[in-house]
Amino acid sequence: MKNSPSLIATSCLIVFLLGLISCQESARFTALPISHTGIEFENTLLEDEFFNILTYEYFYNGAGVAAADFDNDGLDDLVFTSNMGNCEIYANKGEFVFENKTPGSGIVTEGKWATGIAIVDINQDGLRDIYICFSGPYGAIKRKNALYINVGDFKFIEKAADYGLADNGFSTQAAFFDYDRDGDLDMYLMNNMTDETGPNIIRPKRINGEMLNTDKLYQNNGDGTFSDVSKASGITLEGYGLGLAIADFNEDNWPDIMVSNDYLSNDILYLNQKDGTFLNVAGKVFQHTSYSAMGNDVADFNNDGKIDLIEVDMLPPTNYRQKLMFGKTGHDRFTSEIKSGYEPQFMRNTLQMNRGINDVALPQFSEISFLAGVYATDWSWAPLWADWDNDGWKDLFITNGYPRDITNRDFVDYRSNFHQLNSNEIFEELKELEGAYLGNFMFQNNQDLTFKDVSIDWGFDKPGYSSGMVFSDLNNDGQLDLVINNTYSKALVYKNNGQRNTKNQYLKIRLRGDQGNLQALGTKIKLYANGQVQYYEHYLTRGYQSSITETIHFGLGDKPQIDSLLIQWPDGQVNQLYNIPSKQVITIEKKEIEKKPSNFRPFEVVKDLTETLPTFNHHKKFYADFNLQPLLPHKHSQLGPGIAVADINADQRDDFFIGGAFGQSGVIFSQLQDSGFKTISLPDDNSNFEDMGALFFDADSDGDLDLYVVSGGNEFEAGSAHYQDRLYFNDGQGKYEKAQAALPNISSSGSCVTGADFDKDGDIDLFVGGRLTPNSYPLPGTSQLLQNENGNFTEVVDQLAPGLKNIGMVTAALWTDYNADNWPDLILVGEWMEITLFENQLGKLVLKEGLPGIDASSGWWNSIAAADINQDGLTDYIVGNLGLNSRYKTSVESPLKIHWGDFDKNGNLESIISFVENGKRFPIHPREDLFQQIPQLKKKFPDFHSYGKAELSSLLGKDFLEKTKNSLTVNTFSTALLLNRGNKGFERIELPNMAQISPVFGIEAGDFDADGLMEIFLAGNFHQVEVITGSYDASFGLLMEVEGDEKIRVKKQLIGLGGDVRAVASVFLNANKSLFHIASKNNQPAQWVNLHGKKVMGTPLPEVPGAKKAMLYFKNGRLRAKEFYLGSAYLSQNTNHIYPEPNLIKVIYYDKDGTLIKEHHL
After folding, report:
1. Quick check: 78 and 63 in contact, CB under 8 A?
2. Maximum CA pair distance of the chain?
3. Rounded CA gap, 924 and 917, in Å?
4. Is 602 exposed, middle or buried (0-12, 13-18, 19+ CB in 10 A)?
């Protein structure tokens, strides 16, 4: 057969265009021209004085796109929704050439406001049908959703009413899934509409289905019709829904529903109760969420077999646009929202990393968007997870842009005068408002919980107003391509050129399920290849108002085949395939493979290993630190409480003290012989203080343990008697009385207390860390060196430790013989401080500077603890920092800084934190916060635009910045390990990123499971943070193990230790011979944790009086040093037990002079 001239010409044109495109393929992706794709769709909006963003809130929310094979030719076709025009459908003709099939297709939507699109084979005839949502400021008739039944050859018949799905609410998106597991597909419908109250007005939540924006659930009746079962199913909560995802979040094999809500309304996670009803548990599983949440997506991004979640918001990544958006921090509003019953939410993207299932069968999530580097992508709409480089790890793409930037604070202020204008004048002003004309974001997975912004490198350099998007392998070359629906510009098709420059492999899977669910929606897949596991759940509604391809795609890296493929079908049946070659498409039909019932679990249920033990509920009265100092990065009134553990009555049982808040006394718990504890109260006036660190030690050398308690906080004026520390003498009978004259009269807000005989006179002396000068951030506290003279303490810091008194905002300290000269040295850490070492030179403490490993180490350090981590006979140190999951970023080259002074000459101290962007230093604070402190700056920077451009030098003056000594820097926020290299100093090693997800306070190290390897236990969060950043709440405790080659691996991720954790200490329970840890929490009950959930320790070896350190010898030749401490980590004191580990053969004990005093053989 001869080819026609027109066909030959078309073929030549395609060859020419492909050749032209290939010249542009240096980047991974190429935006194909319309002349090649033939896709001319554009979501065009026509605004006027009566219909615009001010009259209709969702005018610029964009539209969706779907990829599906409508003609079953093996190529995905495309459908675009349009807000004001007609939705359009395009047939894929191969090689990225598409034909517009809209004319004659039966798809007619013009005059209606189309939003989201969902693809489903609703009548189970093997042809994909189209469900389109409608909204807009129209009457109910124009808001009826449409169901277009595919009758073949790109012809469709609208049948929504026949199926009972012609909902006329305000729909944003629909998702099809089998919620009741009866074998057919039901539908969840997400709605979004404001009412006269306003979407951000704080008011009681509306939870009984009375709002227009309450979502709906439609049950498939099995006869070609659907019924609204929303109220009966518990779908009754209000919400301004923009993101919808279906997944089995709690791994019970029943699909759950995740809804991301805009504005004040909280996000919703409806857990399937397996009885036709749903229960919202969002507030129990997420520590916080995005405030103005847009689209969302679910996938296992870190290949741990658990479903993770991303939802996007509007936080810009650049200083200038952030300054245009934020007027002030808004602490009072945040507090009001919480008091009104709303759950915490912050204005940024949130990446919820799934940590596993807790002991009440709920998933727990850590929000790590700051750590991951994906927290700020401006006015974002659709996030999608997919492996675009086929390396076996999911990358992240986010669409972006908004035609009128109504968050611009200058416009917001100007808009307040609009009541004086008529509608035409308002519209003329509105037309002058610029849009957020921005590029989209592509983030490559670094495979370590972080992502690299490769947007420009991968070819995404075109700005626009993008909304819905999908991925699909449009040319079947094994690489995922991208399709984006834009407002005011043509839709974009991005070709993935990755196959040209990588050897990475792939596997594509097409599923065919049972009748009723031929698409096999709800299928779960685990793929195993060369020690790596990938997990996928098969649902099509993803991102924002869009529906992705049905063909499942796995990148495999350089693996030529997969070891096994585990498939769980929606009904729970499981199939497994082995040794499948890569670089192919496989079709799996359920009926063709032998069914093997299995309890398929993508991840192991990890229980919160706690036990019912006596606890203490810390009650902290609210104090508004930010009202006095609006520029604070966090509060200082909620830093406690501490914990001290010791045997206070010499019965060989661990007892402990836990501190109280102001107005609440701390309590001593004394362990009983059989089981349990009794409480011992301190004198009544103990409640007049804010307890920080505490220490049991023999202050008066009478053979029993006395108690020192540090007073701290930020609530009182400097010099207040509430900051006076206290010493309680033990009368030998377990009763404690306050020592009236044993301490110097020093009223300073303190932090830690730690003891050692630093002058070797036979009694215990003390270091007390000065935390701060109240309400004068960042001025240092007053640290004390208290020399013991027969139970009376004298301040000798100026005489014996020059420079120590005002060294900084000390958070933790440790007496340790770092150089093995038998004189205890002092290591300090603190906020805006370096790791600081005072070397003990024959009883005088001398600042040691320039020591390798601790130079250039300034951070916001919280904690320090010691152990011989690598078991080489030298003491190493674990140092807890802020971590990397924060908006505060720093480096040695571009450090975070703080400057302070009385800038406005009003007699009060102001402090300004600054950061570097593109080589320029800017203040980090919003305009209104800074001007509240320094009102004079308003004249110099009269609007948000000028402030957004203002460098720090223009605020404070170059002369001041060059001459002032009132500045501090931070070089690192990483929690780290200091390996002791002897006379070579220290080697500082950043701990794995899992240890950087939250501030570290509690630290303990030891071989807790007696396997011969040292473990590091970390805990900590901090909720009292300025609300642009939001709470540091991602940690649930972490256990790491140090292997023989000094490599550190994460051993256990979900210990169940969440909340506002501070001190952590170990307590040996004699009754069941188990080692437990107790953690104090600020304004929350303390919590007990058993790290391994079993008895792994024998009874501790007898203590040796006078011993200051020991060397432990093991059968395999290992040698472990152990110092005995009085106080360590954050506000903590642990006992100095040595446990009879299986391979331990002897312990040699040494006194303060290094003299051997006992050798214990096992």
Report:
1. no
2. 112
3. 11
4. buried
pLDDT of residue 503: 86
Alpha-carbon 419 to chain mean position: 42
Question: pLDDT at position 1097, please?
Answer: 65
Closest alpha carbon to 539 in 265, 901, 177 = 177
Burial 219-242 (b: 16+ CB within 10 A, else e): bbeeeeebebbbeebbbbbbbbbb
* Predicted local distance difference test score (pLDDT) of residue 13: 46
Q: How many CA atoms lie within 13 A of 80 on its CB side?
A: 31
Whole-number pLDDT of residue 603: 39
Helices and strands counted in the chain (H then E):
17, 79
Which of these, 1030, 1034, 1003, lies nearest to 1019 by C-alpha position?
1003
pLDDT confidence of residue 69: 98
Tell me which DSSP letter residue 319 carries. H
Question: Which 3 state secondary structure label does DSSP give 161?
Answer: helix
CA distances from 492 to 30, 33, 337, 457, 543 (A): 10, 8, 40, 18, 17
Written as one letter, the residue type at 784 is Q
Token representation of residue 585: 């498409």
Judge whether 106 and 114 are in contact, CB under 8 Å.
no
Tokens describing residue 151: 């009758």
DSSP letters, 395-413, are EEEEEE-BSS-TT-HHHHH
C-alpha to C-alpha distance for 183 and 513, rounded to whole angstroms: 10
pLDDT score recorded for residue 196: 82
Per residue in 991-1027, pLDDT (tens digit) is: 999 999 999 999 999 999 889 999 999 999 999 999 9
**Contact yes or no for 496/29 (Cβ under 8 A):** yes
Q: Would you say the C-alpha torsion 1033, 1039, 1042, 1043 has a positive or negative sign?
A: negative
pLDDT of residue 415: 85
Distance CA 938, CA 930 (A): 9
Q: Which amino acid is at 117?
A: I
Count CB atoms within 10 A of the CB of residue 621.
13
Question: Which positions of the chain have pLDDT values less than 70?
Answer: 1-25, 499-501, 592-612, 1093-1097
Task: Give the domains, in start order, of the chain with CATH numbers.
Answer: 29-313+348-401+436-512 (2.130.10.10), 625-890+971-1161 (2.130.10.10), 896-969 (no CATH)
DSSP letter at 902 equals -
- Spatial separation of the C-alpha atoms in residues 1005 and 991, rounded to whole Å: 14
Interatomic CA distance for residues 681 and 666, integer angstroms: 8
Q: Which class for 972: exposed (0-12), middle (13-18), buried (19 or more C-beta within 10 A)?
A: buried
364 phi-psi bin (left φ>0, alpha ψ -120 to 50, beta other): beta
Determine how β-strand 573-581 pairs with β-strand 584-589.
unpaired
Predicted local distance difference test score (pLDDT) of residue 596: 52
Q: How far is CA 922 from the centre of its chain?
A: 25
Strand order in the sheet with 876-880: 863-867, 876-880, 976-980, 986-990
The strand pairing partners of 749, in sequence order, are: 772
Alpha carbon distance 1076, 106 (integer Å): 69
Q: In a 10 Å sphere around its CB, with 0-12 CB exposed, 13-18 middle and 19+ buried, how is residue 799 labelled?
A: exposed
